[in-house]
Amino acid sequence: MGNAKTPGSTAVLVLEDGRIFRGRAYGAVGETLGEAVFSTGMTGYQETLTDPSYHRQVVVMTAPHIGNTGVNDEDPESGRIWVAGYVVRDPARVPSSWRSVRTLDEELVAQGVVGICGVDTRALTRHLRERGAMRVGIFSGEALADEASLLARVRTAPQMVGADLAAEVATAEPYTVPAIGAKRFTVAAVDLGIKGMTPRRMAERGIEVHVLPATATVEDVYAVDPDGVFFSNGPGDPAAADRPVSVMRSVLERSTPLFGICFGNQVLGRALGFGTYKLKYGHRGINQPVQDRLTGRVEVTAHNHGFAVDAPVGAPSDTPYGRAEVSHVCLNDGVVEGLRLLDRPAFSVQYHPEAAAGPHDAAYLFDRFVSLMEGQRA
Ligand SMILES: NC(=O)CC[C@H](N)C(=O)O
């Protein structure tokens, strides 16, 4: 957390391998620690900042100009900024948008988010691509100190591997998002860090969404008498998500239609008996090419993931819940981007069909979920 900003004051970004970038304080002044990751989205910084999946991550924006459209009250994906820190090359000096109500700098200060600007984000991104995501600290104001002590601070930060974070970001109390228009289905959505656009995309399809805390039990899920069950995106290491994995296994057992996004895809991978692993530097941006192996169609999609499912691409695998296959792959690097069961109504994707921000190529996946629920009724 930071205190009042001194414009243009010095800030230092220290990576855990000892590489240092100097710049100017942006947003709140102070100290922040986290995992350094980069996002290639040219637009949608408000959605990025407020995506709970970024909890404990310091986000480096590869787009050089950030803040151009200021901050509005409509675009946030949750009630607050979740990124641990923010790294920008060249912040907008004068934002311009009819929806803007304040500057991004003001918003970062108001929410105590420590950032840095004026750093060479291309060099920083290349470093992270070569060395991989790693721990980082941003320091400004009274937090500045000699390099050796800053590096020692960075090395005290917790690692992302093994981090169980969903309950830190998810709703404490259940809430309901009503269907828009006539209600057709009820869905229990286990909130592991859900983005606001996800229940909205379901509501638009006549689904009443009961958003449940990350700690929801199987009894909580079935207490809403769901036609389908959804597992959301969220922060942290899926290898630490034992509770959602066991809840999901009960849902699979009962053959209730099931859909998972991002963390939810990793939870499905684990529920089926596949492993998960940490990617070197992850996928974060809104223009990643993904192929739907069922139709052959390529979609341009929004991503934010640092882990992935380790499942064989090709012939289906036998799992305790019948045959499962990799339904989608990333065309940049072959990473598993979706799973589908062949004998039960369940599927998931590693990317973001709710796409806020991002292209809407993958919105059909919400319709697939609706079809599964229709199929179950027929
Ligand atoms: N957006 C997400 O759900 C991210 C899932 C997980 N925390 C990852 O980094 O891979």
TrEMBL record:
Annotated Carbamoyl-phosphate synthase small subunit N-terminal domain residues: 9-139
Gene name linked to the record: carA
Residues of the active site: 262, 352, 354
Role noted for this protein: Small subunit of the glutamine-dependent carbamoyl phosphate synthetase (CPSase). CPSase catalyzes the formation of carbamoyl phosphate from the ammonia moiety of glutamine, carbonate, and phosphate donated by ATP, constituting the first step of 2 biosynthetic pathways, one leading to arginine and/or urea and the other to pyrimidine nucleotides. The small subunit (glutamine amidotransferase) binds and cleaves glutamine to supply the large subunit with the substrate ammonia.
Catalytic reactions of this protein: hydrogencarbonate + L-glutamine + 2 ATP + H2O = carbamoyl phosphate + L-glutamate + 2 ADP + phosphate + 2 H(+); L-glutamine + H2O = L-glutamate + NH4(+)
GO BP of this protein: 'de novo' pyrimidine nucleobase biosynthetic process; 'de novo' UMP biosynthetic process; glutamine metabolic process; L-arginine biosynthetic process
Organism: Streptomyces taklimakanensis
Designated name of the protein: Carbamoyl phosphate synthase small chain
Region (CPSase): 1-184
Pfam families membership: CPSase_sm_chain, GATase
